[in-house]
Amino acid sequence: MPFVVARDMADPIAIIVVSPAVAFVRTLYANQQLRAFGCRVGFGRKILMAGAIVSLMLFEISSIVLIGTGGTVTSVWIFAVAMYLAYLASIVMALHSPRKEASLGQIQSPAERLS
Predict the structure, then answer these.
(1) How far apart are CA 107 and CA 115, in angstroms?
(2) Do residues 87 and 52 touch, judged by C-beta distance below 8 A?
(3) Is the dihedral of CA 88, 93, 97, 100 positive or negative?
C-alpha cells in the first residue's frame, strides 16, 4: 500500500517543487539576458519580471484547468486571457529600455554589446 500513496503524491509534489523551480530558472535567465544587453536590472524591473513570471504560471495553471474541463468553464477562459494579457504587459514594461538621444553612429548591435 505505501506505493499507492507515493504514486498519489507524485502530482502534488511535482506541482509544488517543479513550478517554483521553473520560475526561478526563468528569473535567472531573464536577468542574464537583461545584463547581456546592457540593461540596468533595478528593483522595479525585477518586480515587473516577477509579476510576468507569476502571471505566466497562473496562465499555465488555468490552461491545465481548461484542458481538464474540456474548455467549458467561461470564468476560467476569462482568467486565462487576463493572466496572459497581464504577462504581456509586465514583460513589455520590464524589457522596455528608455530611449536615449543618440546618433546612428552610437547605436550598437546586440553582438557588439556582448563583446
Answers:
(1) 14
(2) yes
(3) positive
Cell of 63: 490552461
Q: Torsion angle of alpha carbons 96, 27, 33, 62, nearest 10°? A: -60
pLDDT tens-digit map of 46-97: 888 888 888 988 888 888 888 877 878 888 889 999 999 999 999 888 877 6
Q: What is d(CA 51, CA 88) in angstroms, rounded to the nearest whole number? A: 10
**56-75 core/surface letters (b: 16 or more CB in 10 A; e: else):** bbbbbbbeeebeeeeeeeee
How far is it between the farthest Cα atoms of the chain? 72
Residue 47, CB-side half-sphere exposure with 13 Å CA sphere: 3
What is the rounded distance in angstroms from the CA atom of residue 109 to the CA atom of residue 111?
5
